[in-house]
Automatic annotation (TrEMBL):
<dbReference type="InterPro" id="IPR051614">
    <property type="entry name" value="UPF0045_domain"/>
</dbReference>
<dbReference type="InterPro" id="IPR002767">
    <property type="entry name" value="Thiamine_BP"/>
</dbReference>
<feature type="domain" description="Thiamine-binding protein">
    <location>
        <begin position="5"/>
        <end position="94"/>
    </location>
</feature>
<dbReference type="InterPro" id="IPR029756">
    <property type="entry name" value="MTH1187/YkoF-like"/>
</dbReference>
<comment type="similarity">
    <text>Belongs to the UPF0045 family.</text>
</comment>
<dbReference type="Pfam" id="PF01910">
    <property type="entry name" value="Thiamine_BP"/>
</dbReference>
<protein>
    <submittedName>
        <fullName>MTH1187 family thiamine-binding protein</fullName>
    </submittedName>
</protein>
C-alpha cells in the first residue's frame, strides 16, 4: 500500500513571507526519511499511511509551539500496489506529452 500526500503547512499570523516556517516544516519531512518532493505550493511525501499521517501531525506540531494560527492542507492518494509512484506519475504524463 502506497500513500502520496501533498502537505502545505504555514502560519497565518507571521506576515506575508513565511519561508522560515515552511523551512522548519520541510526539516520535519526530511527527518522522517520518507521520499519527498518540494513544490511551490506544497510538498509531496510518499510512504505508508501511518508514516505519512505521523509526518503530517509532526509538521503541525512544529509550528504550533510559536504560531497562534496554522493553516494546513492535506491531499492524500492511497493506492494498493508498488511504491515509487511519486516519480512514476510525473514520468507517465511527461511521456505522453513527448509522444504528442
Amino acid at each position: 500500500m502506497s500513500v502520496l500526500a501533498e502537505i502545505a503547512v504555514f502560519p497565518m499570523d507571521k506576515g506575508a513571507s513565511v519561508s522560515q516556517w515552511v523551512a522548519r516544516v520541510l526539516s520535519v519531512i526530511q527527518e522522517s526519511g520518507l521520499p519527498y518532493q518540494l513544490g511551490p505550493m506544497g510538498t509531496t511525501v510518499e510512504g505508508g499511511r501511518a508514516e505519512v499521517m505521523q509526518v503530517a501531525d509532526r509538521c503541525l506540531a512544529a509550528l504550533e509551539a510559536d504560531c497562534d494560527r496554522v493553516y494546513m492542507t492535506l491531499k492524500v492518494d492511497l493506492r494498493k500496489g508498488p511504491v515509487g509512484r511519486m516519480a512514476g506519475k510525473v514520468a507517465s504524463v511527461e511521456a505522453r506529452l513527448a509522444g504528442s
